[in-house]
């Protein structure tokens, strides 16, 4: 089925205690699109500058993404630069240069308005709403956001949240959004805002799904080595929505299909930190995926 | 079966953003003993001062603990005082008054040397070794420790670790003990030190069991309200060892019995933060326990 993602297509400069990589392919839409692993026809809506390398667009296309919705504009591509601490979890943002992304006005191509799944990656909630308005009733809408929008544009965020089926946030964002310390209370409060299903991402501690009928806690796969965790959350979303697409899920489907999607999101995301930027994701093949899914199930069965 | 625990029997003064409780029953041996829930004949080895209230000893005895190994000495009981931050996770230790605990020299009563399970709670590793030396080959030995001993008495700790079957530590301690950032590598390094099974406790993120054949990740039960998490780690240990005792496990048992014990440790520990000190633990009854075990299983089944 078809999956529309709107988000950043960007360059990341990432510094870890061991290595520094400059201007590598990044951005939420890029990670998401590659992470769908061909489980749906993924369509990318975004903008890049005239500095963006054709080979990076070719990489996305080579992974099955329709990149005809990525507009190229005069100026610089969105560029994020950050440095990880020794624990490879904490990080300092060194620079956020919006470039052409500052004036991003996503317009959904006519042929894409019937896309069956919509992932609104972490961009200004007013833009998320605008994209949502242009769609012809997708089967399911998932949304990511961040502390910046929770703090600065709460009304815009509330407006789009009311229309969303699945919210993906991390634990501190869930607490900030609701003012509730208990994740159980936070999830309930979020469900009252609109999304009937809430996923709380906890990085190396896994992710928790608050569904209609219950809660599923999925551990993160324990990695031998973490090279660069940038983008893991978007990879989770790509694996998750890709899984729902493959299953033909709708917003009214049973929790079971969402529980399976949680496993697929977790397995997909586990490859991300094993390489810089999208490199870990590119290592996924059927055998590696199946082995890791078996590992994950083994970790969950008492 | 019989379970010997050596550890602190103490008073805790706990301050939270909402309330302060002074000199309440605490200490690792107290939490552990109550948390075994009558699954084994638990024997407490410890020391208290002449300020220790008889009603607190009676409480332990009333929960089935044999307290004849708790010596009463002239002086003050061990007293810990701490203040929790708003997140109810971070805390500042305000005072640690060892009192009679400073000269604690545990001597295992002759009738207890045949105890089948031994839990060496978090005390000086040389004392842990001394107790171990006095035992007549228990079926299984579990040990808890902390950053203080990892930093200040590594040789003593290494000596006792070589004799232990199960180590329970938190994630930062596992990393500090081994110098390994990856929990997979840390667990492997610990297994090379002696314990064939390692449990890494992660508080609200649950606990991970590294066994002989695989890894089990158990989420923490999501609580509506956290009153006081003090002692939850010792409650986990009590539930865990109690479960092994009830099953008659030995150090050579299959992982399956340890996996079940992980669930029992998690369920037992989940009651602890719901009240001050041991009060949450005292709320456990069969129905509440069964309901929470079902909740936990539900959280783990995709």
Please explain how this structure is put together:
Two copies of one chain form a homodimer. Chain A is an alpha/beta fold and 302 residues long. Chain A has a single domain, classed as UDP-N-acetylmuramoyl-L-alanine:D-glutamate ligase (3-Layer(aba) Sandwich). Chain A is 36% helix and 24% strand. Chain A is built from ten helices and 13 strands. Chain A has helices at 28-35, 54-62, 125-134, 147-152, 154-161, 171-178, 183-193, 232-247, 255-271, 286-300; strands spanning 2-6, 10-15, 20-26, 41-48, 66-72, 79-84, 91-97, 117-120, 140-144, 166-170, 197-201, 207-210, 215-218. In chain A, the strands form two sheets. A nine-stranded mixed β-sheet of chain A has the order 5-4-1-8-9-10-11-12-13, with helices on both faces. Chain A is globular. Chains A and B meet through helix 7, strand 13, helix 9 and helix 10 of A and helix 7, strand 13, helix 9 and helix 10 of B.
Q: What's the SSE blueprint?
A:
Two copies of one chain form a homodimer.
Chain A (H helix, E strand, L loop, with lengths): L1 E5 L3 E6 L4 E7 L1 H8 L5 E8 L5 H9 L3 E7 L6 E6 L6 E7 L19 E4 L4 H10 L5 E5 L2 H6 L1 H8 L4 E5 H8 L4 H11 L3 E5 L5 E4 L4 E4 L13 H16 L7 H17 L14 H15 L2
Helix pairs in contact in A: 1-8, 3-5, 6-7, 8-9, 9-10
């Amino acid at each position: 089925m078809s999956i529309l993602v709107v988000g950043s297509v960007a360059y990341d400069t990432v510094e870890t205690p061991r290595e520094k990589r400059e201007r590598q392919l990044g951005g939420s839409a890029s990670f998401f699109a590659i992470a769908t692993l061909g489980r749906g026809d993924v369509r990318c809506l975004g903008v890049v500058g005239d500095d963006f390398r054709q080979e990076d667009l070719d990489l996305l296309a080579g992974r099955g993404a329709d990149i005809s919705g990525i507009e190229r504009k005069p100026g610089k591509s969105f560029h994020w630069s950050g440095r990880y601490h020794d624990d490879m979890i904490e990080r300092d943002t060194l620079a956020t240069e919006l470039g052409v992304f500052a004036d991003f006005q996503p317009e959904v191509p006519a042929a894409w308005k019937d896309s069956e799944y919509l992932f609104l990656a972490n961009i200004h909630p007013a833009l998320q709403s605008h994209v949502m308005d242009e769609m012809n009733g997708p089967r399911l809408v998932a949304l990511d956001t961040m502390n910046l929008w929770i703090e600065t544009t709460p009304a815009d965020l509330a407006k789009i949240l009311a229309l969303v089926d699945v919210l993906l946030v991390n634990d501190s964002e869930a607490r900030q959004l609701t003012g509730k310390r208990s994740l159980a209370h936070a999830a309930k409060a979020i469900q009252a805002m609109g999304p009937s299903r809430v996923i709380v991402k906890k990085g190396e501690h896994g992710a928790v799904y608050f569904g209609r009928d219950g809660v599923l806690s999925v551990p993160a796969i324990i990695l031998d080595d973490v090279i660069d965790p940038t983008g893991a959350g978007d990879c989770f979303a790509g694996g998750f929505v890709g899984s729902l697409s493959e299953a033909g899920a709708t917003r009214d489907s049973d929790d079971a299909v969402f529980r399976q999607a949680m496993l697929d999101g977790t397995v997909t995301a586990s490859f991300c930190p094993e390489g810089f930027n999208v490199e870990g994701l590119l290592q996924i093949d059927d055998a590696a995926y199946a082995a890791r899914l078996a590992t994950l199930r083994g970790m969950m069965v008492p």
